[in-house]
Amino acid sequence: MESSKCYSFFEIRSNGYLDFYEGFIADKDSDFDPEYITDKLKIEPYETMKMGTARKNGIGTYLFSSWRTCFQTEPSDATQCMSIVKALTPHISLLQEIYAELNVSFAIQLTAYLDPSNGEVPTVPCFGFDKDVIEFCYLTNTEIGLEIMTFGKE
Length: 154
Fold this sequence. Notes:
The protein is of the alpha+beta class. The chain has helices at 34-41, 79-88, 92-101, 131-140, and strands at 4-14, 16-19, 23-26, 47-49, 66-72, 104-114, 142-150.
């Protein structure tokens, strides 16, 4: 296994907040049909979740709605965000309409995995956001989330 890797994607999700003990808590009026987003943007998501439907693992139901697209795995650097923004920039006005119409939030989510178990010191991917990424986020009220997962030797 490589000592580091990362992936990123764009997500429209129910508005809400993250509780340390309970996980993500969606606002009561933040349910939406992911198919509506697909129809409006004319972009196929790679993953969707609908509040109240059974989870894929069969345990419980989804407590929020989510629509994800532009999944990126290569290269493991800041250009992942730029690829997402280039794909979605033609849809800024539609994203603004969705944001105004529904109780949702937008995010570009980056996740980096650092694994030193093979004896190598993992290289931390470099994340930088150029003006086009910042402008897209500003125009669409998109947050940037960064999650770094580390694994140690046993």
